[in-house]
Amino acid sequence: MDNVRIGKFKGFTTFDLKIIGIVLMFIDHIHQMFVPMGAPSWLDWFGRPVATLFFFVSVIGFSHTRSKEKYMLRLYLGMVLMAMGSFFLQKIVGYEEVQLMNNIFRDLLVGTLMMYGIDKLSEGFANKKFGKILFGIVMILFPIISSGILLSLMSNPSTIMAAVWGANFIPALLFAENSVMVLLIPLMYLAKNQRWLQCVLIALVAVLFFFQGSTQWMMIFAVIPIMLFNGEKGRGMKNFFYVFYPLHIWILYLISAYMYTH
């Protein structure tokens, strides 16, 4: 008999986690795009664990990438292109029933900047280099400080448009799709060698959402595939997500616009 393993589950690879996230995300975005046509609200439930899954995958990816700077650059380009693409698509189509606010690249970039800052802070303390310590602190605080600056500018009628446009190019925490929930990324990074602690952090955030009456508490279900993660990369799909994420949102948006107007 061939050395083919049949029915032996060895856990999920990083590739598997991405695929799970993509499938759940797609279902969630069907709900988002087809609400004007009466899409059932329960479709939204499928998307609640997605951000958490991608946050966990970003911690794994950042921990193992060869160039953390290139990793951040890819996310930055993804963030800007997504923002610009969605803006111009909405202007051209003029379909106001659905707003394209999605940009997970911003969330992941904010978290990655903080992880990068944690690394520099750790290196600075280890080598007793004040410059690296200071740089690390700046990187960690940048998404928070930039949020405050942008919000301040938005409160002034004379600077509001500059701030709105600036938000497309600045990775600010409070302008991320998942806002302060993005802080889970640096927290999970600090606990990257303790999977149980990462899951506890996820559970604590889920409990907070539960008591707020938000369906986001369903993010707790991300713990299941995370606990089953086997530490392996699996098949490579380095650039697939960068293309699939904006493309599927824009295509669903166009289909929704066509169906609504015909």
- State the oligomer: single chain
Can you tell me the overall shape? globular
User: What is the number of independent domains?
Assistant: 1
Roughly what is the average pLDDT, rounded to an integer?
Answer: 94
Q: Number of helical segments?
A: 10
Content of β-strand: under 5%
Low-confidence stretches: 1-6
Distance between the termini: 58 Å
Number of strands: 0
What's the story with the biggest beta sheet? Answer: none
Which key phrases capture this entry?
transmembrane; 262 residues; disordered N terminus; mainly alpha; 10 helices; globular; single chain
How would you characterize the overall build of this protein?
This protein has one domain. The protein is 64% helix and 0% strand. The longest helix has 26 residues, at 68-93. It has ten helices and no strands. The chain crosses the membrane at residues 12-34, 46-63, 75-94, 100-118, 130-154, 160-187, 199-228, 240-260. This is TraX protein. Keywords: Membrane, Transmembrane, Transmembrane helix.
